[in-house]
Amino acid sequence: MTGKRLLVTGGAGFIGSNFVRMALAEADIACLVNLDKLTYAGNLRSLADVEDDARYVFVRGDICDRPLVERLLREHDIGTIVHFAAESHVDRSIVGPDAFVRTNVVGTFTLLEAARTVWGDDVANRRFLHVSTDEVYGSLGETGYFSETTPYDPRSPYSASKAGSDHLASAYFHTYGLPVLITNCSNNYGPYQFPEKLIPLIINNARQGKELPVYGDGRNVRDWLYVDDHCRAILAVLQGGRPGETYNIGGNSEKQNIEVVQTICDLLDVKLGLLDGRPRRSLIRFVKDRAGHDRRYAIDATKIRNELGWKPQVRFEEGIQKTIDWYLEHQDWLDAVLDGSYQDYYARMYENR
Ligand code: NAD
Ligand code: TDX
To answer: Which of 34, 121, 141, 266 counts the most CB atoms within 10 A of its CB?
Structure first.
């Protein structure tokens, strides 16, 4: 990228904040505008180290606010949109799907319309990168992988709303020639992830000696990718990806949930010592399964590897250790995000489960 002018949506969230930091450090950026509504999942503390960078502008706002989005595109002469903003947690989508349809479907539509209006036919050097998930492909059995041609089969309100947004993004390429690229990535983990997601929730609970809720039989499989590897993949797609194309991104690192939880317990036992003489595995509780729980996700990342030379650099064993160390060293960040609303959420989701 040469002197790019970026609009990043959802840059105060988990992946967005890691991406903003990496892009400012490693890519040739002239201006990076971060548009984020600061929902429960967005936290400016995650970007405290870049806020003084003269190229960085933070705007608190909603991606559904079309006049605002159009103004930002014009005022900052934006050439590249990297769209992360979303409601991202499957369990929340089961108890309250409304916000998912609004932000993920209507919000993405609003961004696409704003880009089409402001950019017009002047799209030669522009890019709209829509960040999506492997969950749109549904659930795998014990074998097989999701490729870019796997038919969509979303099964949760979250994945259905992401699938809807993917279809809109793709339609804007085919119908209007908007230079859209779509990435579908597997489960991310790493610093700054909100502790509603499996890995940070288990680290936080296990550190405090609280019960570790494992849904169902714990044998559901996810393909884990360290967040920096996802961010590098997005930079590679911005650099060399072809408009109209989809790129699957995965860690080639399938684990059953129970293995992930046991690994975190064992690493914390080594790091912090046993809990009152007991290993942390004794905190594991099998609880009521998630409704419509997808059994297995696994990505075939051949296309991005062959076309763009991307592959994961961080092995799970290394990434999980780095992630645990980060959470132990950033109790202040955790305390700041675990406010009253998190306590209410936790009680609603896990008490009497
Ligand atoms: P996150 O929940 O941590 O962050 C989402 C961010 O979007 C927050 O900062 C929030 O304030 C902001 N936001 C929400 N609604 C908004 C709105 N209406 N307007 C403006 N900002 C709004 O999410 P994440 O885990 O960082 O995921 C980022 C993107 O990557 C999402 O699109 C998600 O679907 C996708 N994705 C996530 C994963 C994963 O494992 N976390 C994997 C693949 C794809
Ligand atoms: O307490 C828990 N216990 C448990 O067993 C939680 C929170 C989760 N789980 C299980 C459910 C899943 O099989 O762990 C697995 C991972 O769960 P999440 O962290 O909620 O992630 P998942 O549902 O797989 O979705 C994630 O990856 C794809 C992100 O949240 C999505 O935004 C992304 O698109």
So the answer is: 34
134 is catalytic: yes
Distance CA 139, CA 133 (A): 13
CB-CB contact of 320 with 270 (8 Å): no
DSSP label at 103? I
Q: Give the pocket of ligand 1 (CB within 6 Å).
A: 9-10, 12-16, 36-39, 41-42, 62-64, 84-86, 88, 103, 107, 131-133, 162, 185, 187-188, 194
Whole-model pTM above 0.90? yes
The span from the CA of 11 to the CA of 9, in Å, is 5
| ipTM value | 0.99
Q: What architecture does CATH give domain 4-190+225-252+295-314?
A: 3-Layer(aba) Sandwich (3.40)
Kindly list the domain boundaries of the chain, sorted by start residue. Answer: 4-190+225-252+295-314
pLDDT, tens only, 283-340: 999 999 999 999 999 999 999 999 999 999 999 999 999 999 999 999 999 988 888 7
Instruction: State yes or no: is 135 an active-site residue.
Output: yes
Q: For residue 104, which ligand has an atom nearest its CA?
A: 1
